[in-house]
């Protein structure tokens, strides 16, 4: 039984503060929600566990997809999203994404986001599974950083938004299926505090750090899903993890993302023997859906016994490459690679979680007054495999929708302020949480990675079972809390991956390689 809290506490003994909106997370989803809420006249407190600069948004290279091009349309964008999603997209959610997305992107442009242009015209590029050039980018391959700059500057200028950094949210405060706020700890002073919100929004981002190889920053430890699950919210589609096909593989280098846009501009994938292989795997070759490219790469690595395959840009115009991908050029140069002359060694790495806290089409979870948006949420808009560059768009669209719905929630005043406490947890056991985290990441990578079997998943589940006794102990350090969250969410991914006896999108079972019509459904879990 998953316990409700990570620490013993009594809210009556802690400092308390209150805002209309309490937003957890400072990536695109959290910041856009804060901006929209403040524009609607609400007071907002936004908590981030580190700084606003540290998020997956900041690392987003390829761009943001929106049907704004002359030959494009929301219908075409919808079709591509559904194809990538492998039969599990919620069609209403996709329709909302592709129709409202262009307006939200125009709002970003009005706020000052400077996307790349030729003359006055926006430039569009293509990535995997898109039938059109529809991906906007900024400073070549620094799209997320530009969006983050724009949003944080705009939000910082609003007097009704308070941004508090280094605030680690320990648990949600939920009673009678209604969320009243959070328990958080200031990572600098160590002070625990109660933040009350009439609307609480989870926008805590990704889960990539569950795996040993990931493109995600250190902060992406699945906190939002763990918080919501412990509090009794429904979570959905947890088995669907997207492994990005091309992360840099060099000794001493992090698994830095080499954007799919590089293939969109003509780069080819070659195996260790120098042979191009993607045309044998899919008609769209290097631009096939991500799950197909990732598995093709793993198959070529196994065939040749190599640790990586290679991205070949050597046939492309060197000046254009340097101008189009300045961040990738510079980062690779730091590790001694000239991407205009050398092949780039790459392999798949965990990149995006399609599942998350289940919400309706307005971002509302199964707990009243608790909303979720961005990667931590799951509307099933991405189905079993997210279409490239749809994630930034998702954060904007559902950030905006939450504010529309929450206006109704705010009309209903809360008549009481319940207090919360927990005194049942035993002292923190004397274990090495850093080692435990490493072991968890290794198990997830090896047993719950892109190629799964019942045997591998059973081994992973045995690992999670072994550590489940920790749920009756408290943890006081935030690094320990992260590991606890990772244990909870890693266990959910392994459990649902075991349940789904088929292969679909980001979930591939070597022992059930076919897609089964009877599995065209979602797995929903609740504590
Ligand atoms: C990329 O630039 O390849 C990543 C874009 C995305 O994940 O949508």
Strand fraction equals 15-25%
Q: Can you give the helix content as a percent range? A: 25-40%
Major beta sheet, specifics? 7 strands, mixed
CATH topology description of one domain: Flavocytochrome C3, Chain A, domain 1
The H-level CATH homologous superfamily of one domain, spelled out, is Succinate dehydrogenase/fumarate reductase flavoprotein, catalytic domain
Gyration radius from CA atoms, angstroms: 22 Å
CATH architecture of one domain: Alpha-Beta Complex
Roughly how many Å apart are the termini? 8 Å
GO molecular function: L-aspartate oxidase activity; steroid dehydrogenase activity, acting on the CH-CH group of donors
Pathway: Cofactor biosynthesis; NAD(+) biosynthesis; iminoaspartate from L-aspartate (oxidase route): step 1/1
EC number: 1.4.3.16
Subcellular location: Cytoplasm
Explain how this protein is built.
The model has no long low-confidence stretch (mean pLDDT 97). The radius of gyration is 22 Å and the shape is globular. 34% of the residues lie in helices and 18% in strands. The longest helix has 22 residues, at 478-499. Strands 2, 3, 8, 9, 10, 11 and 18 form a 7-stranded mixed sheet that branches. Strands 19-17-12-21 form a 4-stranded mixed sheet, covered by helices on one side. Helix 1 (28-39) packs parallel to helix 11, helix 12 (433-447) packs parallel to helix 14 (478-499) and helix 13 (454-466) runs antiparallel to helix 14 (478-499). Among the domains are: 241-349, Succinate dehydrogenase/fumarate reductase flavoprotein, catalytic domain (Flavocytochrome C3, Chain A, domain 1, Alpha-Beta Complex), CATH 3.90.700; 427-525, Fumarate reductase/succinate dehydrogenase flavoprotein-like, C-terminal domain (Methane Monooxygenase Hydroxylase, Chain G, domain 1, Up-down Bundle). It is α/β, with parallel strands linked by helices and 527 residues long. The protein has 14 helices and 21 strands. It binds succinic acid.
